[in-house]
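Example 9 (inverse folding). The structure is encoded as follows.
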């Protein structure tokens, strides 16, 4: 993805200006997609690697389960 496109995305999402790496994980619980969580890294930080993605997925499962159990997400 061209750097200018990344900058436009970051601005549209109000990410910090120095954001250069992003990692998204889907929030799913009991077969339902509840949303997405995004992890960001700024300039000077290394790109996300597979262990980071695995950790992000684990965190996403925990967040989704907590939201689902708390009844924070409307059911269709």
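The amino acid assigned to each position is listed next.
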């Amino acid at each position: 993805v061209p750097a200018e496109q990344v900058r436009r995305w970051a601005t549209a999402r109000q990410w910090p200006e120095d954001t250069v790496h992003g990692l998204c994980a889907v929030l799913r619980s009991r077969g339902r997609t509840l949303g997405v969580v995004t992890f960001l890294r700024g300039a000077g930080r290394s790109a996300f690697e597979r262990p980071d993605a695995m950790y992000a997925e684990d965190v996403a499962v925990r967040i989704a389960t907590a939201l689902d159990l708390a009844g924070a997400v409307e059911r269709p």
